[in-house]
Amino acid sequence: MTANVTKLEENKVRLDVEVTPETVKQGVEAKIRELGRQVRVPGFRPGKAPRRVIENRLGRDYIYMEALQEQLPGWYSQAVVETDLRPIDQPEIHFDDGLDEEEGFKFSATVEVRPEPDLGDYKGVEVPRREVEVPEHAVEESMEELRGQFATLAAVEERPAKEGDFVILDFSGERLAGGPVEGAQAEDYMLEIGRGELLPDFEENIVGMNPGERKQFGVTFPMDYSEESLRGESVLFNVHVKEIKERDLPPLDDEFVKEASEFETLDELRAAMREQLEAAAEQRVGGEFRGRVLDVVAGDAQVDIPEVMAHEKAHEMVESFERSIRSQGMEPEQYYQLAGTDHHP
Question: Considering the entire predicted model, what is its pTM?
Answer without folding.
Answer: 0.46
